[in-house]
């Protein structure tokens, strides 16, 4: 009953098959291979725009590097106070940008609003040069930004002279939830760079940076190499991403994860001893439980994380591409035996 994270799951069979195929024969190194070239074309088709893709092996690198081309070292990066870049990346954005300062914003359900952004920029105008706002999709509270919401933030960002970055660690879950086109949620809404997650949704190690301007791509190439994130056998990262986007695999995996989270939320909502504390719009479920219930579930083998930043007794359950009905049923059965 491991619902700690979508990172605890393994690799989707289609990704393993792609890696096996990439392991046959020889190909050029450092991204000059045929698979990486095909990936560029596939992602451009997906986003309905010339897109430039830089595969990397971690989401932290994808965030830090993409932010580094959007802000100078003396710049300010605005993000929600629950954002992964603010809470979980050990100052990596500051490292990759050479010193940019994070300015956090509080807003309900982990979604920045245009008004909250403007107020924070105004309040910190002389702390660092306002440079970029980063939004997370889906958010750290399991909610999603609608297309209209991203467009509104994009318009506000432009009016304030800010670039717009997306931490898309669960981008697939957001797109699956909204049923929208990836282009509508990114460049059409004003997004300048996306740290596009995939490992949480079925790849083994592959993440990607996607930008929509060649000059940013060229600068990122230099920064990625300097940061030590140019893999000598890039084809193995690109092969995962190529398979991930083929035949809508990324969406099928995300839809399963979202559906399992919705099922779990529906079952939890029927209980008097459990309170859902956030809307369940993607694959994360946040619930407040009595302490004795939390202890009982863990004694029964359930694994999940405490999430006190959302309130006392709040825990997080995460469903993924391979979360089974049996896992959900086991958790609910364990709740039925709680004292």
3D architecture notes:
There is one protein chain. The chain starts with 12 loop residues before the first helix and ends with a helix. The protein is built from 13 helices and eleven strands. The protein is α/β, with parallel strands linked by helices. Helix 2 packs parallel to helix 10 (234-245) and helix 8 (171-178) crosses helix 11. The longest helix has 21 residues, at 249-269. It has a seven-stranded mixed β-sheet with strand order 1-7-6-5-4-2-3, with helices on both faces. Strands 8-9-11-10 form a four-stranded antiparallel β-sheet, covered by helices on one side. The mean pLDDT is 97. The protein folds into two domains: 11-248, Type I PLP-dependent aspartate aminotransferase-like (Major domain) (Aspartate Aminotransferase, domain 2); 250-336, Aspartate Aminotransferase, domain 1 (Alpha-Beta Complex), CATH 3.90.1150. It is 42% helix and 16% strand. It has helices at 13-22, 34-47, 59-68, 84-87, 92-97, 114-123, 147-159, 171-178, 214-226, 234-245, 249-269, 291-299, 325-336; strands spanning 52-56, 75-80, 101-105, 129-136, 163-168, 193-196, 207-211, 275-276, 284-288, 305-306, 314-318.
